[in-house]
Amino acid sequence: MKTISGKIIDRTWKRINETTGEDAQLRLDAMAKQQPFIVAYLMAVEETLLAGEERGHLLLIGLILWEIVSTENPHLRPITMQDLEAAEQVNIKFLEELEAGSEMDHMAGLEKLMATYNQVPLLSAVIEALMSGNEEEPELAGDDIGLALLHLKTILDCLDQ
Description:
The protein is mainly alpha-helical. It has eight helices and no strands. The longest helix has 20 residues, at about 80-100. It is globular. The mean pLDDT is about 85.
């Protein structure tokens, strides 16, 4: 799929963030119908990573990703649990390789990812959403940000096929 423009991302992100709870639920129901494994995956991740009132944040970001990608690709195929598990393993392997290297290797690996990743604007929007409120002091962001990013990138990787 072609790279999705920042304009489309910004417009959709804003529209969904400004939606009513009822409309958001209708959108989530539509996503659950078309992509049940993505919804189940995100709900399981939230159950594991997030406590109480924080739950729903990853699901909302996942909903936004799905809306953006499915708008650009209306014939999006259903993502299976096997697709999600395979993409997650690739992302975990990438992180393990980064972790095994030096700080310079980290930078080179991340630069390569950003230079070769098909949906950099969308991935950047996900990072921005996860870091919201921690822009001034990113080192104070919660430890779960990295894991949340891993799981959301897994969703994006599957949707972008």
